[in-house]
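tmp note - 3-hydroxyisobutyrate dehydrogenase
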Amino acid sequence: MSELTIRTRGRIGHITLTRPKALNALSYDMCMAVERAMDAWRDDASVALIVIDAEGEKAFCAGGDIAEMYATGTAGNLDYGRKFWRDEYRMNAKLAEYPKPIVSLMQGFTMGGGVGLGGHVSHRVVCDSSQISMPECGIGFVPDVGGSYILARAPGRLGEYLGLTAARMGPGDAIHAGFADHYIPQDKWPALIDQLAASGDVAAVALAAQPAPDSPMAAQQPEIDALFGGEGLQDLLNALHTDGGEFAAKALKTLMRNAPLSMAVTLEMIHRLRGPSLTIRKALEMEYRVSHRIMEHGDFLEGIRAAIIDKDRNPKWKHAHDSVPATAVSQMLMPLGADKLSFEEDTTMQIAFIGLGNMGAPMAANLAKAGHSVIGFDTAGTTAEGVTNAATAPEAVAGADVVITMLPNGAILRAVAEQVIPAMKPGAVLVDCSTVDVDSARAVAEQAQAAGLKAVDAPVSGGTGGAINGTLTFMAGGTTEAFQIAKPLFDIMGQKAVHCGDSGAGQAAKICNNMILGVTMIATCEAFALADKLGLDRQKMFDVVSTSSGYSWTMNAYCPAPGVGPTSPADNGYKPGFAAELMLKDLRLSQQAAESADADTPMGQLAAALYTQFVETEDGKGMDFSAMLPRFEKRGRG
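out:
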């Protein structure tokens, strides 16, 4: 018997999965057959819309057929799985972007690959038997086939909860979480298909829809948001341990069964993707970074062994739940370079990168690894992996589609702009990633625009670690057109890019962000020093504050106390991830901007004064900005 049936019927193209005994699990051939049908019907005027359904009562599609991936992977053949995922993800993107309506009818189990098939189309229908979930963390994988796209868009912290626990959604939950659109009882589906075939009018779906059943998850949303709102896996585990309630205990029990690395990576993926720049392609490209590496460096093969091969339900995960290295997460999500999942024939650019210092060099290297042609220049003669060096800045920018600068201050930016703008080709984009004063950013943008160029000021947050691992956040100012040209490069170098407004808005956002960071780090260090003097154990303080109203990035993700919380510069003798003198520079920029705008910023002003004292008259220069803690430890109130 065939695995699926593809035919036209009246005005519809009709695809039916026909493997009910295998819960309609997707094979590679099924994926390719679906794609071929979509390609054939795209420009067929007789086909107004597509319907995708499945035989059997138990499942629309319970996932991908992973037994062959295990067999080939354990034999050392990693290419089979990579090809499967690569081609399946391209098919998922086509479903999401298809120019004609597609109706999916999802009864019973819809998991993993089933979500990729039915969860991205224009009209997603569920019924009373529908049970939708993303169970990948239980087998050492991550939510894929675009599942991370839906999870990142789910209300509140429901995406984290669903991605890590694999909780099953009934029809009401699926609609609430964004995995489905309409509730129609299954006995009404045959008549609906007949009507669609006769009329070709997809409006019949909404007309047939009935009020969705209640969503238990919607009622639990406040509790889910509170328990799953942490920055990292350890934060979630801490919150669940501390809560003590029945819901938290059940969720914790599930998490303790799942692969720790998979959950940590899933959490990081959702956090990186969440935001206004999210697209299905961005999600799939990030998922493929993990898929490409998961058999070789993750727990996927062990998870399949324990679940479906030996069925002992006793996987030996690579890491303990409380000690997943941040580097392991970053490595799974680093850009793939030439192996990157691509949706177009050729998306490469000619890029010039001016300023190959501690930040610029790894950023340029990541662009080169992603397949772009990068020519670099730095007055110190430094180089970057995969980057061709030029003798001068004007030589580097000649013929470049995009010129990126990463420079120390506004005066140097203005001087470099004087050299490179006349040498750039018409229509090219100048992207300045330096942190400089707003006036310099706007002056350079005006100069570029007067020369027939596009300009973006896009300072970054994330430090050298973010530059190396491709996890920076870009705060961009400039025209929408210029931002859209630069955005694919931001996606390679970072985890998020926010278009903040016109020229100078990126610098304004960075200055405001780092003023908050400087102030909160001082407050965090003061609190630890006070706790010491009050006889409060630092770990106990962290356990309370990290899950209470004192929660902050400086406490939970970058704790200044050695041996407490995730690994940070404090655990490495305060060697800088973000140097104190750089924080001082940013705080001074914030106060310069505040004076120019006549803004009252007393906390920012005091933070600037404290960091000035720390850097210029104490021992803070060359130390991480969190080294304020040992400073406060030594000082009394006088």
